Amino acid sequence: MNNIRELCLKYTYLSNKDIEAIQSISKTLQFIADSSKADVFIDCLSKTKSDSAIVVVSAKPRNSQSLYKENVVGKLAIRKNEPAVIRTLQTGIPSRDIKAITQENIIVKQNVEPIKNEKNEVIAVIISEKDVTEDVKENKKLEILAETNEELISQIEGKKIKYGNGDIAYHVNDAILIFDEDGILRFKNPVADELYKKLGYNQELIGMDFSNLALSKSTLSQIIEKKSIEVEEIDIGDMSFQIKYISQGSKVLKLAMLIKDITDVKEKERELILKSVVIKEIHHRVKNNLQTIASLLRLQSRRIHSEEFTIAINESINRILSIAITHEILAKQGIDEVNIKDVINKIKRFMVTLDKRDDLDLSIEIEGDDLIISSDKSTAVALVVNEAIQNCIKHAFVGKNSGKIVVKIEKGNSYSTVSVRDDGIGFDVNSISNSSLGLMIINSLVSDKLKGNLNIQSNENGTNLLFDFKN
Hints:
Elements: H1 2-11, H2 16-26, H3 29-36, E1 39-45, E2 52-59, E3 76-78, H4 83-91, E4 95-101, E5 107-116, E6 122-131, H5 138-157, E7 162-163, E8 166-167, E9 175-179, E10 185-188, H6 190-198, H7 210-213, H8 220-226, E11 230-236, E12 239-247, E13 255-261, H9 263-303, H10 307-333, E14 337-339, H11 340-350, E15 361-368, E16 372-374, H12 375-396, E17 402-410, E18 415-422, H13 437-449, E19 454-459, E20 462-470
Parallel strand pairs: 15-17
Antiparallel strand pairs: 1-2, 1-6, 2-3, 4-5, 5-6, 7-8, 9-10, 9-13, 11-12, 12-13, 14-16, 17-18, 18-20, 19-20
């Protein structure tokens, strides 16, 4: 009993409660070995080596010859040699009469039953092994092949779709297995052979029962009763599969099971999720750093009483926070694209309006289309809109008690436009100073970053700044 505990603690992730359950069941192992005249073992999934199990206890029959010369407790059972053991440990599905190779290189037939805990989790398996020569099923297999040969020729060969020089079933990437109404495998393609070899099956698949080839817990009768195409995804060890079941009318070709190995796809999905988490964390840190810089500048501005310096600091804070907004959204989404409308709405909410007169009733509206663009473009657009709104607040409403700024987004097929319009006093476009920092920033971003065009129109009814960029 102590040996079981030591092995489980050393080689598995099992809890004390699970180990106690295995110890309890092990008390009946000798009885099972004697009654079945077979070598009996309890194996648990190993934590030290993938696709392997550790033998924690064994019992040899006392009333018949054991197949083993030595004690194999503490040794590993690997998928390649004992596929039924790993299959049942990973899926919880019993396995019947599956060929295996023992630790002493003897070919045996295994029957494997799962041992489950109170949470219905598989914690171990009981394995019963008999000499392969005692179980003669080859004659039945030959009878099956002879009985179905004619129907297979008429229903598969006669109706097959040609692909080059052969049957399409031999050229597809999916494993194809076809069972009769009794659940006996009647047809399989080469991909099926390769897939089950990966799972450790070393024997001929034709003639095997559905229950021994099933990779999920669905039974043959459950699948056939649904009378529809059923699709499910399962994980077995480090491998992932998509299984499709198609019920058919023929008694001999009752159920088609198509299996696609999607291990690489799932691995790429996991890599993308991991990258997404990393990217989100990077954007989160960049956003925090930018906000810290803005906070430091704000503290600095309070210590200096120069009006010109305060204005310059506030403008810089707005620019920094405009960039931070894009990173804030990216930190939540984990992808490199954002809705620019969301970004501009956030600019509107955080806009530092220290330049606005207390007696000015100002409204800022965002309208138009949702537009998804890359983070690079989003940062540039955010800065342009920020500069435009700041200019409106500073210059557009001199001598007025109220004002309105409208930012409009228009999504086009190839190019999209963003306009910032106010109902202020307007100005002479030709008199704009080339030394204006705000205008220099806008021109640079539109032409260099966005590769777009900038147009400014103004009269006594207000000003409209419009720029475009490629989607």
